Amino acid sequence: MGRSEQAGRGTGGDGPVSRLHENATKITSLLVTAVWFGAMFTGQDWWLAALLVGYVAVVPLVAILFGDEDDRREWVDNDSSTDTAETDESEPTDSTTDALDTLRERYAAGELTDEQFEQKLERLLDTETLEGAQEWARKREQERADDRNRDLEYDR
């Protein structure tokens, strides 16, 4: 039986095992903190080693093994960086695909309204390339400056 099947046991996949699996990184961080804090306050000489080993080795390892996709991205250094000139702009990049998938998931979950989804999708597609992102940032900064000027004129 696989780990995901075991985690699914209990009350509809929301049992103690699945909750433990989902929060493994947070629980590990809490335990590491408790161990080194306890060692420091009881005068143990090894508290600094516990702190360093805990946060440099144990927590990242647990995050990689048991964490969700966000935990993995935070702790694993991707070597998938490629030169933008070498990529074919007709095909979406992995980061664009990930962002699009995340946007779709948030919309499907009801976190975004139709209007918010359309705005974010348009922004995502406009900023797909480095030049597009720079152009979007310039437009956004110009809009902010215009808003500030309007506010100053209104205050007068």
From TrEMBL:
Which InterPro entries does the UniProt record give? Answer: SHOCT
Where does the record place the region Disordered?
73-101, 135-156
The domain of life for this entry's organism is Archaea
Coiled-coil spans are none
Q: Which residue ranges have biased composition labelled Basic and acidic residues?
A: 136-156
User: Is Transmembrane helix one of the keywords?
Assistant: yes
Question: Which residue ranges run through the membrane?
Answer: 46-66
Q: Which UniProt keywords apply?
A: Membrane, Transmembrane, Transmembrane helix
Q: Which Pfam families match?
A: SHOCT
Ranges for domain SHOCT: 98-125
Instruction: Specify the protein name.
Output: Putative oligomerization/nucleic acid binding protein
What species does this protein belong to?
Natrinema hispanicum
